[in-house]
Design brief:
Largest sheet: 3 strands, antiparallel
Radius of gyration: 18 Å
C-alpha cells in the first residue's frame, strides 16, 4: 500500500500548485473559513503561515517515507521543495518589529496579528534559525506581546517546539497545571497526546482533506509510522560525494491538529 500512497501524495502535491502562484506559498482564500488551527482569532486571510507550515511538514515527512522506500529522487524533490518553502516563509512572515511571526500576508502586506499559535507552529516545524525561534517563543510568552493566546490543542505543539529548542524549563509544570487538572477532575485520560508527534500519516491525511474537502479511506498508519523516522522532517545537506542527506538538526514533525 505504501508505494501507492506515495504516488497519491505526489499527485496531491502537484495539485496543490494551483493554490500556489508561481510555485510559491499557498494562498487559501479559496477556502477562507478553514484555518487548521483552532477556532480562535488567528488571521488566515491571504497567504497564511499555519497552512504553509503544514505543507512544509507534509513534504518533509513524505520525503522521509519515500527515502525509506528507496525512492531517492522523489524524496530529494519533496525535501528540497520543503526547504525552498521554508525560506520563503521566513522572508514572508517574520516581523522584526514584533519579534515573532505574523499570521498571514494579504495583498503584499503582513498581518497585524501575531498569534501564539503561528509562532509556536513555526518553532515546532523548525522554520527559521534556532536563535530566532528561541527569541520568538520567549517574545510571545511575555504579557501583551501576542494578540491571540494558545488554547489546549496547540499547546502540545508549543511545548514540543520549546523542547526541541532547549527551552524545557516550565514544560512539566505547564502539563501538570493544564492537562493534569483534567485528571484531577476525574477524567481517565486527556484528549491531547503527551507528545505532539505520533502518527506520520496524519499530516498527509489532513492535507488530503484540505485539498479535496473530504477524508480519504483510512491510511495504513501503522505502516507509515515505521517509514517515518525522527529525521523525516530534517532539511537536506550534501556529503562530500554530493549525496543528499538529512541534516543533523533535530526535527520530526508529524501530527497535525484535529
Amino acid at each position: 500500500l505504501l508505494p501507492q500512497w506515495l504516488d497519491t501524495a505526489d499527485r496531491l502535491f502537484e495539485g496543490s500548485r494551483k493554490y500556489r502562484p508561481g510555485n510559491g506559498l499557498m494562498n487559501t482564500e479559496f477556502r477562507p473559513y478553514y484555518n487548521w488551527a483552532e477556532w480562535e482569532a488567528v488571521d488566515h486571510t491571504g497567504v497564511p503561515a499555519i497552512q504553509n507550515a503544514w505543507l512544509v511538514l507534509a513534504l518533509r515527512c513524505a520525503g522521509g517515507m519515500a527515502h525509506g522506500m528507496g525512492q531517492s529522487a522523489r524524496s530529494s524533490r519533496w525535501r528540497l521543495e520543503a526547504d525552498d518553502l521554508d525560506l520563503m516563509m521566513q522572508a514572508a512572515f517574520w516581523s522584526e518589529a514584533r519579534g515573532a511571526y505574523v499570521d498571514s500576508v494579504h495583498e503584499g502586506r503582513q498581518s497585524s496579528i501575531v498569534s501564539q499559535q503561528t509562532t509556536s507552529l513555526m518553532a515546532f516545524a523548525g522554520i527559521g534559525t534556532p536563535e530566532r525561534l528561541r527569541s520568538a517563543l520567549r517574545t510571545i510568552l511575555r504579557p501583551g506581546s501576542a494578540d491571540v493566546p494558545l488554547t489546549m490543542q496547540f499547546r502540545a505543539y508549543h511545548n514540543e517546539g520549546r523542547e526541541r529548542l532547549g527551552l524545557e524549563d516550565g514544560i512539566i509544570d505547564d502539563i501538570r497545571a493544564r492537562w493534569g487538572r483534567i485528571l484531577d477532575l476525574g477524567a481517565t485520560t486527556t484528549w491531547e497526546t503527551e507528545k505532539a508527534l505520533e502518527f506520520a500519516g496524519q499530516i498527509m491525511q489532513e492535507f488530503y482533506e484540505f485539498l479535496f474537502h473530504r477524508l480519504p479511506s483510512p491510511l495504513p498508519i501503522g505502516v507509515l509510522r515505521t517509514m517515518a523516522p525522527e529525521s523525516c522532517a530534517q532539511p537536506l545537506q550534501q556529503d562530500q560525494a554530493g549525496v543528499l542527506l538529512a541534516s543533523s538538526n533535530p526535527g520530526a514533525h508529524r501530527k497535525p491538529p484535529t
